């Protein structure tokens, strides 16, 4: 029981630091996000139903999604395309792109 409690406390301490980890630069992200417009729309609103809207998504969700594509942890749908796009981004780029899309309405 003590191990479980220790693990839960450790994870609880980690979660706030993950939430603050992104903090990207939206202006820098806008430049990197230009390639995303082909599928997700110029303002993060896709005109094609099969592609999700990115505008207004939570920053950490976008960071985690891009990192999961980059690591090969997402495998469904358009994952091969997204993995290729994510591979071209550094961690800073990912944070910046996420900050950009989360700043949009």
Provide an overview of this structure.
60% of the residues lie in helices and 0% in strands. The protein has helices at 2-19, 26-32, 37-40, 59-70, 79-87, 91-103. Helix 4 (59-70) runs antiparallel to helix 6. It is globular and about 40 Å long.
Please summarize what this structure is.
By secondary structure, the protein is an all-alpha fold. The chain is built from six helices and no strands.
Structural class: mainly alpha
What helical percentage do the residues reach? 55-70%
The rounded distance between the terminal residues' Cα atoms is 46 Å
State mean pLDDT (0 to 100 scale). Answer: 86
Shape: globular
Unreliably modeled segments: 15-20
Give the radius of gyration: 16 Å
Q: Quaternary state, please?
A: single chain
Give the biggest sheet: none
What is the N-to-C order of secondary-structure elements (H for helix, E for strand)?
A: HHHHHH
Helix count, per DSSP?
A: 6
Number of strands: 0
Any chance you could write out the topology, listing elements then pairs?
Blueprint: H1 2-19, H2 26-32, H3 37-40, H4 59-70, H5 79-87, H6 91-103
Helix pairs in contact: 2-6, 4-5, 4-6
Features:
single chain, 105 residues, mainly alpha, 60% helix, 0% strand
């Amino acid at each position: 029981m003590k191990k479980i409690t220790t693990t839960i406390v450790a994870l609880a301490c980690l979660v706030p630091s993950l939430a603050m980890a992104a903090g990207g630069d939206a202006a820098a992200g806008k430049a990197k996000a230009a390639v995303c417009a082909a599928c997700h729309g110029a303002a993060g609103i896709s005109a094609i139903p099969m592609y999700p809207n990115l505008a207004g998504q939570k920053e950490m969700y976008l960071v985690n999604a891009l990192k999961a594509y980059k690591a090969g942890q997402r495998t469904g749908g358009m994952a091969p395309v997204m993995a290729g796009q994510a591979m071209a981004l550094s961690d800073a780029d990912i944070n910046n792109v996420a900050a950009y899309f989360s700043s949009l309405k």
